[in-house]
Amino acid sequence: MNAIYLDHAATSPMHPKVIEEMTKCMHDQYGNPSSVHSFGRKSRQILDRARLVAAQSIGANEKDIVFTSGGTEADNLAILGVANESTKGKHIITTKIEHHAVLHTTEYLEKHGYRVTYLDVDEDGLVSVEELKRALTDDTILVTVMMVNNETGVIQPIREIGELLRDHPAVFHSDAVQAYGMLPINVQELGVDLLTVSSHKINGPKGLGFLYSHPNVRLNPRQFGGEQERKRRPGTENVAGIAGFTEAIKLAQAERELRYEMYLHYNQTFIHVLKEEGVHFEINGNDSPRVPTITNISFPGTNVEQLLTNFDLSGVAASSGSACTAGSVEPSHVLSAMFTENSACTTNSIRFSFGLANNEENILEAARRVAQIVKRLTTN
Question: Which residues of 279-311 are buried (b: 16+ CB within 10 A; e: fewer)?
């Protein structure tokens, strides 16, 4: 029985060309980029090229790119960096469906005197721009809204929020981890001041990401040491990893439209098989614009632990926003925000996410296995 990976939103396999680029770099370039000798200069050239590639992928200037250890650090640097630098207020606006890298950071700030407004979303998983507008005050220093939700794939109205904030002094941050590589992103057009990207979600190495920071945004650093990354993120850079990240960015940009259509086909094929097999299900956020890589499905009459265990035993890897602990299931915070905490779909929904490890054959096979399991569990 072949194992089938449908959890690309959690992490994605590294592209062979990324591995090749990293291996070459690890073999040939071991100088410290901060060193002035030839070994260091060669490593510095790799960093400079990487920064340019990253910047061009989002319509930014290379001086505005800060390499980090991943999306979580980038989110923390954006939120804490703005909060601790600002003297204009202590109000932050975010949403109830953000990644925990954002939510736990804002919760930390609440314990240190900041006031945070957590915006609701509707049953389609969308935040209201009008509600955000009503929440804005003269004391608001930061608005942080994700571009694509990591559980449902729902695309948030980032451009509209950017327009709203153009005449407000608040800094606008967006976690674009699940959007990057799937959607065209131009920070100037979107009006975004800070943008978070992760490497391992686009077939690059783990432990790397970047934060775009508009030149007018002042960030209080979260770490102290050397003067790397223009004093915004000290520490010797992971040159080989960044070389691989660069290759992943190049591939994602060159193949974005092709990948979009391919993953949309996989998504539609998966859903079509479930329907053909007579499975009863609902797609969470189905009436909202969504990226094709993620589909979040509610299977009435089941529960997350039961589903994930049986899927895994059948060789299908998927995931859920619900936290499974010692025989109980904590409801997904995203689905709880979309519906209610008592809604059955908060504990019977599974996220399937498509990517490099998939092809037509294993999508069909995975859908058949899932259908068989769901029908068996709902008839017992």
Answer: bebebbbeebebbbbbbbbbbeebbbbbbbebb
User: Beta-carbon neighbour count of residue 232 at 10 Å?
Assistant: 20
Active site residue 324: yes
The length of the chain is 380
pLDDT band at 87, cuts 50/70/90?
confident
Range of the domain at 233: 16-254
pTM: 0.95
**Same domain (yes/no): 261, 246:** no
Alpha helices, DSSP H, located in 57-90: 71-85
Give, in order, the Cα–Cα distances in Å from 167 to each of 136, 161, 170, 194, 228. 12, 11, 9, 17, 33
Partners of residue 330 on adjacent β-strands: 323
8 in a structural domain: no
pLDDT of amino acid 127? 98
Of 324, 329, 344, 357, the active-site residue reads 324
User: Nearest CA to 135 among 95, 162, 175, 81?
Assistant: 95
Count: domains in the chain: 2
The answer, yes or no, to whether residue 321 has pLDDT greater than 80, is no
- Specify if 7 maps to a domain: no
User: What's the chain's average pLDDT?
Assistant: 94
